[in-house]
Amino acid sequence: MLDTIQRKIKFNIMNEQKTQQLSVSEITAKYTYGTWRYQKNWKPLHIVYAEGCYFTDASGKRYLDFSSQLMCSTLGHKNQAVIKSIAEQAKKLAFVAPGFATNVRAELSKLLLKVLPKGLEKFYFSTSGTEANEAAIKIARMYTGKYKIISRYSSYHGSTAASISATGDPRRWFVEPTGKIDGVIFAPECNCYRCPIGHNYPDCNTACVDYIEHMIRNEGNVAAVLIEPVVGTNGILIPTDEYLPRLRKICNDNNVLLIADEVMSGWGRTGKWFALDHWNVQPDILTTAKGITSAYVPLGLTATTMKIADHFNENYFAHGHTYEAHPLTLAPAIAAINELKKNDLINRSFEIGEYLKKRLLGLKDEHPSIGDVRGIGLFQAVELVRNRKTKEPFNTKEDKFGGKPLVVDKVSAEMMKNGVYLVSWISHFVIAPPLIISKEEIDFAVNEFDKALRIADETVM
Q: Which numeric CATH code is attached to 80-342?
């Protein structure tokens, strides 16, 4: 018995010593999951510090954050006002159950009434964009008594049951059929570079939005249409001028709710508080996260009209989480919104975004691998193609999820070598730097992009 105990102790000591010999990167890869990836050969870079538009690895190398991490570090890193708000709230009241009222909850609610699209007056606070969309779908179904949700193929709405079910891109494939909810159907997206129904704008008269009306009338039982007003990860797709106003009218005419997913496009990213503001469209429900706290603390928001809210005065609101309206998540949202206001970062995003787009369009003349440059504010995309005439991409969705090396990833890896972090997705790059980025920093990043794109140019047909 004693020998057995000693052997166990010796084994545990050896394991502990072995663990201590591993690097932080190795420990991370060995004992934690890397999301949306094959686990084999994952070697995460060890990051130790971040400030402004830069983050630093364990070797001391700095990287310009040209995608705001996952399009969420809107204010950049180490904003002192946001950091201070977290510390002060922790000292006052770190947590209380969501059934209680708090000063910070009331203060944020009053502030939201001033910046959200008109008519959104009742709020549910969660801790992520995926939770915000989950709540929106449940609210829409409870309110309308209907269950079908129309989403679009080029979309990403989250990773939990309802939100992944409403995700049009291939990340949905991995939970089908048992890991998703019933009742979600998909419409074509508004993508004038690659029209999913083979039309050309403006001759098409924005037929893609009429298609949604056709779906509503033929499906029946549709509770809501869920869209990203400006599609995020799937390509920064900007709708035509008439698309969103017409979709709003279609929803009104057919007694269907319009849910706007502004998880990525909100909080000044497009040069307005919210992307919908460019078209003066008011949704019935808006979801957001990411930039609401500049990602300093996880916070999601589901905002509805008071008309929807009044339904639950006499009907049970069947939703909730332990961390709903967590005080430590609300305080940094107040600070982040005030920082956006104080530094006029909403207008700045649009103005410097025009400079960024001009620089990116300049690259198109030099690189035959660039098929399209599109965007609004500091929310830009560069799409690569093997052949400009046919618009043939270098890689497909099947390549991405089959583990095949992607050309865009090779370009991004080259940029990391040269000190610029840029998010890539199948055939395009999402260029969404912090709203505080300078023209000099944009020039540096675009110049490195210019050099790295030669990797793609070499395989153009």
A: 3.40.640.10
